[in-house]
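Cross-check.
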Amino acid sequence: MNRPRTWQTLLAFATIYLVWGSTFLAIRIGVQEVPPFLLAAFRFLLAGSAMVLWMLARGVSAPTAPQWRSAFLLSVPIFLLNYGLVFWAETRIPSGVTAVMQTTIPGFIVLAEISLLGTQRLSWRLAAGLSMGLAGVVVLTSDSLGLGGASVDRISAGALLVASFSWSVGSVLTRKLPLPASKAMSSGAQMLAGGVWLAVAATALGETRGFDPGTVSTGAWLALLYLVVAGSIAAFTAYLWLLHNDSPTRVGTYAYVNPVVAVLLGYFAADEPLGPRTVAGTACVLLSVLIITTMRKVVATG
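Predicted model, tokenized:
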């Protein structure tokens, strides 16, 4: 197999670093005018439909009935709960902090592997990593540490922890359920199913009642377009390409870079606060991610 050119690799990394890091700000812009679950529904219905149709046009087999059932089951924790709560939280807290809170996902995935799969056991290093992540959350939400600046709304922070836990459960379940062999088709099917669930939730929550698309500004619609095309299609395609052409360890570095990009974009482009509290909380959570994602897997026995 021919090695990819350097510029292709750099472009792919730049895409997952910058685009995924910037989607949090795009969400923040969008939810100021479009209800959160409805905006998320628009994003994933459009992106999922485009991905599935693109794969079908390339000759990839359509998902079978059992695979569609799996997609709809997985899309509950991954899209309805995770993304739905992320979009909702961004109506209340800064985009950069949301991105930092989402980096607790690796810790929750390991906990899910321990409790649901039994493929991992607790080690001192893992405990240290999880404790560091928890410390970061405390720094962001506590009023008693003397770090200055407003603390993060605790209800929103709790919702984001639920979102991260839901994503981890969905990620673990993907190893147990039948899904299309094509990763792109599998992702498209899950996005489409997630969009359906989010649309149902938006309707149940009354977000569609009285919503007038004509009152939404061009900027908010452009934010949605960016989320669909750049965030869901282009970045995911770059991610899959990198997984096939580079080491998983290097590809996984997006988990460290995305929150930094999100925090800096929020500060410079949206006047979000960047005080000692945000810096300290972000540092703790990123150190947690570093500890957890670089440790050797300790396999459970017995």
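The chain is about 75% helix and 0% strand. Residues 298-302 have pLDDT under 50 and may be disordered. Passed to J.P. for a second look.
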